[in-house]
Design brief:
By secondary structure, the protein is of the alpha/beta class. About 15% of the residues lie in helices and about 30% in strands. It has one domain: Roll (2,3-Dihydroxybiphenyl 1,2-Dioxygenase, domain 1), CATH 3.10.180. The strands form 2 sheets. Strands 4-7-6-5 form a 4-stranded mixed β-sheet, with helices on one face. It has a 3-stranded mixed β-sheet with strand order 1-3-2. The model has no long low-confidence stretch (mean pLDDT about 90).
């Protein structure tokens, strides 16, 4: 029997759980978390599980961890509109989070931006894709 794996979980290792929880709550996630939590999880309506683990707890389940956080990933958030991308980007950067990619009209037809979470992970903010807004070749996006 050829059983394919199912991608159902994202584990993010964090240095400061309180800062991480504050950021993702500000970005729109709703979950319960104690101030001194070492592990926080959120099951999304589609069944996908996001877990945040404090760096000091990783050794309990990953003895090979190299000690880094903020790896080369972009955690994506779908927003309801192009204006919602601009508004959330403005709210997060207004709160002091680093805007890595200002909002722009991307070649694939969406409004897109990237903000960094407290550990330096990219958090992509994307509007619905509108086929009439697609273009080729891509133009360089604006710089932060």
């Amino acid at each position: 029997m050829d059983e394919r794996p199912v991608f159902n979980q994202l584990n993010v290792i964090v240095r400061d759980m309180a800062a991480t929880v504050a950021f993702y709550r500000r970005a729109g996630l709703e979950f319960a978390a104690e101030a001194d939590a070492r592990h926080v999880e959120l099951k999304l309506p589609n069944g996908f599980l996001i877990e945040f683990d404090s760096a000091d707890s990783i050794g309990t389940w990953d003895t090979g961890w190299n000690g880094t956080t903020g790896a080369g990933v972009v955690i994506g958030f779908a927003l309801s509109s192009r204006d919602a991308v601009d508004a959330l980007f403005g709210a997060l950067t207004g709160d002091g989070y680093r805007g890595r990619q200002p909002p722009y009209d991307a070649f694939w037809g969406a409004r897109y931006a990237i903000v960094e979470d407290p550990d330096g992970n990219g958090v992509g903010l994307m509007s619905p894709i509108e086929s009439e807004r697609r273009f080729w070749p891509p133009q360089p996006p604006p710089h932060a």
